Amino acid sequence: MAFQDKALDGCTALVTGGSRGIGRAVCVALAARGAKVAINFRSREDAALETAELVEKAGGSAVLAGFDIGDSEAATEGVGAIGKEHGLHVLVNNAGIAINGLVMRFKPADWEQVIGVNLTGSFTCSKAAVRYLLKAKEKGRIINLSSVVGESGNPGQAAYSAAKAGILGMTKSMAKEFAGRGVTVNAITPGFIATDMTDEHLPEDQREALLKSIPLGRMGEPSAVADAAAFLAGPEASYITGEVLRVNGGLLM
């Protein structure tokens, strides 16, 4: 099947954490395929508005969806509101946080926050969305953003790695649950992508060492992850479910 540029015409996609970084790039990529994009954000409405402008320029339409996915009640209500008003065909669970630290010094509250936002938040949004995705049948998609460290682990990131690994198990289980209705569930594991989060958590000396370990010799751009998500959201990926798509420059093979 040839790649269909406007294959998501008439579809609504919700992207959590869509105001910046990878989330913003995903919003734009889905808009370029014709989708109406609900841009989720927690506090940066100004950034979400910037994303909305980019979505419109790419050929889609934008809706702002302000709620905290780490708050289960707010997330359930927020996803439900989008589904009721606009329908829902594609959910991209992208929002996440990283709190790093050695295990011996890691605070229980930080563990709970990292797991709560990254893993529980993705589960809550998926649970709230699935009633609408099942109605979408073969157009229904859940795309979960995990991480290369969810497969490989990383010193100082036990909580983040655990949350991202959990997303992979959740992806495969949901894929088996929803396959009978034509809804696919897949995950993407980005490597080190040039975003604000990466800049915040990757000191310059570690960055240089990291680049030497990446076969392609460079960090990835958010658009590389976004293109993978746009593919998984479209009809070309209708027979792909329960899979983990690595976008990491060869860092983990």
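That was protein one. Protein two is written in the same sequence-then-structure order:
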Amino acid sequence: MSQSTSVVLMVRPRHFLSNPETAVSNVFQVRHGAGAADNARASAEFDGLVEALRGAGVDVVVIEDTDDPVKPDAVFPNNWVSFHADGRVVLYPMMATSRRLERRPDVLDHLHTGLGFDVREILDLSEQEASGQFLEGTGSMVLDRENRLAYACLSPRTHLQAAADFAQRMGYELVMFEAVDAQGNAIYHTNVMMCVGSKLAVVCAEAILGDEVREAVLRRLRETGHELVVISFDQMNAFAGNMLEVRGHRGEGRMLMSARAYASLSADQLTTIRKYLEPLVVPVPYIEDCAGGSVRCMVAEIFLPRSN
């Protein structure tokens, strides 16, 4: 089981805008707008990320968003789907009704029949929506795939029942906690406050509520062999927690991060990161400001085996 992959899925936006439905629970959305100009700017940043990943040797499967229905957050596929090395695909319960439209069976069919990925089972957790239980994929959870741990902070988009359902069915141990920003707002997605790579973990420790809980989370990260880069609230707000370890075709590791996140890091923090991974830095400021997510949110990792 590898923690990182060299194959990812991305969805090019067709109707990108700052979604007022998601802004209620996402304080990272600080800019609001709508229209063709917004989509053009988001698409340009999207294409820049695709180019940077491919330049680093990462295979990017680009899916085009559809015109109908309108899906303002389609650029963030990691919230509705995750792909696993045992051939399982998980579909997730989403809080915003507008985001539930992003789940697309045709994408799974294309991966299987068109690109030769072995999809052995589809585990659909979206039924949890009926009981008001939500779990937005690898936004709500940060997965340590090598050690079978799922880190998750409780929020309006991340509920215990749904997370426990995932953990039980997928064979993960759940590490759940509460986390807030400097103003006391619940952090909407775990992947904006922490990142877990093969040997390195980035975490906004001061966001975790409770001294004992905080120390337990940090201890678990260290016990699984991770050196920690502890970031501040200000760095978290710059999306320094929203990083992702990826691999090129030759196995070389990179730490994907936005230009804003990179600029927020200290020299010592960058030195620690470079002990393990060279930063792969891509500017996505418009997507960050309008949609409240960064580069990690734009990428769904594909660990599926290839069909024989």
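The mean pLDDT is 95. Keep this in mind for the problem set.
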